[in-house]
Amino acid sequence: MPNSKAATLRAELVTHLGVTHAAADNALLVTLDRFHSESHEPAVARAGLTPTEYMRTALDTLRFKATLIFTALLADGRGADARLSWEMFIEEEIAVIERAREALPPTALLQDVHAMRRIGRSLGLRDEQTDELVPGIIHSIAAGYPYRGPCQQDLSLTDILALVTTEDLTHCLRHAALVAEGRSRDAAEALRRMQHGAH
Question: Measuring CA to CA, which of 12, 122, 141, 185 is 20 to 30 A from 102?
Fold first, then answer.
């Protein structure tokens, strides 16, 4: 990150949040380290992005800003304010995702409750379980949206959600169900298979 941008972010944290300079410095280091770690995850390479490209995109996302604010408030000893700021960010994110989902064409899989439930049943899930898991899956897709590959740069979040296939949703539901059951080892293996199939 350029020194000028880092200085601007620190100044904003101190001025707008009233945190100490030490808390602002700590938050910036911790947040940058977190996103730098993410930039080396296999999913980033599969999206066709280098760690540098990922970081360049990440620094301009609302998630980076929200994480930075949360971390700064926490470092300043203001846990309640930190939680409130994060909850507000999540609420805004959910609203954006819901608007994108509502804009999906009727033919999109994520608009077809019956089709999603059929996929869930094929995995042994009750309809209620599928209904509970799908919003989390959509949120996960949306969280990765800013970091889409070069061939998808012109696609909106609605476009990305419209591209979800039966195979995609089957893999995601299987993984989410295993996580929900606390079967972390099986879930990790399912994720590896899913990622391997994406190559």
Answer: 122
Is the CB of residue 68 less than 8 Å from the CB of residue 49? no
Mean pLDDT of 126-137: 93
Alpha-carbon span 163 to 109, nearest angstrom: 8
* Closest C-alpha among 76, 70, 79, 73 to residue 34: 70
Query: Which tokens sit at 30?
Result: 């911790």
Report pLDDT digits (tens) over 86-128: 999 999 999 999 999 999 999 999 999 999 999 999 999 999 9
Mean residue pLDDT of the chain comes to 87
For 77-80, which contacts have Cβ atoms below 8 Å and span 24 or more sequence positions? 78/19
Whole-number Å distance between alpha carbons of 74 and 13? 12
Whether 131 and 185 have beta carbons less than 8 Å apart is answered as: no
Q: What is the pLDDT of residue 199?
A: 43
In angstroms, the CA 126 to CA 134 distance is 13
